[in-house]
Amino acid sequence: MSQVKVALIGVGNCSSSFVQGLNYYANLSSKENQIGLQNPFLGGMTPSDIQIVAAFDIDENKVGKDVSEAIFSGLNNAPKVVDVPLTGIIVSKGPPLDGVSEGIKSKIKISKKPDADVPRILKETGAEIVINLLPSGAVEASKWYANQALNAGCGFVNATPSFIASDPKWEKRFEDRGLPLAGDDLIDQVGSTALHKTLLSLLSDNGVKILETYQLDVGGGAESMDTLDRTRKVKRNIKTQSVASALPYKVEIVAGSTDYVDFLENKRDSYFWIRGNYFCNTPMQIDLKFSTVDAPNAGSVLFDVTRAMKIALNKKLKGAIIPVCAFAFKKTPQIEPIKNIKENFKKYIKENS
Ligand SMILES: NC(=O)c1ccc[n+]([C@@H]2O[C@H](COP(=O)([O-])OP(=O)(O)OC[C@H]3O[C@@H](n4cnc5c(N)ncnc54)[C@H](O)[C@@H]3O)[C@@H](O)[C@H]2O)c1
């Protein structure tokens, strides 16, 4: 398998963890070095086969810098876990469009550099996969970059909650162009949605009748501020629908980002409540708090999606790649039963690599 060439759209916290992870996991020779990865080897590739060839942002603190420096600049507060040597990839300026929310406007300055020729850069760098890591409210900008990926002949990964892979019109456009698409809204490696679904599925499989449940999140990254400003409702709908898919019946569910707490920095606290009845209508409840750091939670899943999309490109698979969408995203073109997701993903990798 050759290397997979990636363009990063948005050099924020997720990009920081992604790029740091590429260095952290550069040597997988021992089991010890593989700790924290879901799939150290996937389709004959390791994370070292992922190569960043282009990156775009709008923040004057990031544009014009080497990616290794930009990931620790501006509002980024993902933890630094490794020194990243110079990459030789300079962050280019993209068009701002709707990338900046009201809350962020007072905290960053948009670079005065002219907008780069994005399709030309994608073509000249040989980018194969464009990974969209724009803020969650950047709906127009996400669509604009999806168009650039189509124009440049790249596969597109939409980590944001903007509807692209789950929109049949976009899916058709990628299918017509013979390119793979995956999205929308990345699932975390140890995320609150996955934990919530697993708990509900376990209880329901064991005969518990769930009566009501919620999952409320607070975080301190720029993304949490953007969510509070613009996408709380969309994110809540996506998460609630995803959680609902874990149960074979309808129940009162609320799941979604709730608030921004600046001193949490890139940390996220999730609060879960589940109430139900088991044998002879005996009541049970779960009331728990789950704490994580946001950006590293995207790293392992992005490594897997990137390699899975390279496999799709090699095999000339086109349109939304359903086993990849189901494995790694919350809002998918079609809902798969939770039990089949990992198996289907493994089968997809095995059959196509
Ligand atoms: N674990 C996770 O962190 C996780 C999980 C699921 C989904 N996501 C999604 O991933 C996306 C990225 O999250 P993040 O925490 O890195 O966000 P972030 O706010 O830290 O980073 C976004 C970056 O995009 C840049 N940007 C804004 N407008 C732009 C434009 N028009 N062109 C180029 N760059 C632009 C910003 O300057 C910033 O550097 C979000 O949509 C989030 O919902 C993240």
Search tags:
2 domains, alpha/beta, Dihydrodipicolinate Reductase, domain 2, four-stranded mixed sheet, 353 residues, Rossmann fold, binds nicotinamide-adenine-dinucleotide
The largest β sheet comes out as: 7 strands, parallel
CATH arch. level architecture of the largest domain: 3-Layer(aba) Sandwich
Mean pLDDT over all positions: 96
In angstroms, what separates the terminal alpha carbons? 9 Å
The CATH superfamily of the largest domain bears the name NAD(P)-binding Rossmann-like Domain
Radius of gyration: 20 Å
Structural class designation: alpha/beta
Counted beta strands: 11
Shape: globular
Strand-helix topology:
Layout: E1 4-9, H1 13-24, E2 50-57, H2 67-70, E3 91-93, H3 102-105, H4 118-125, E4 129-132, H5 139-152, E5 155-158, H6 168-176, E6 180-183, H7 192-205, E7 209-219, H8 222-244, E8 252-260, E9 267-278, E10 282-293, H9 296-314, E11 319-320, H10 322-328, H11 338-352
Helix pairs in contact: 1-9, 4-5, 7-8, 10-11
The structure holds nicotinamide-adenine-dinucleotide (NAD).
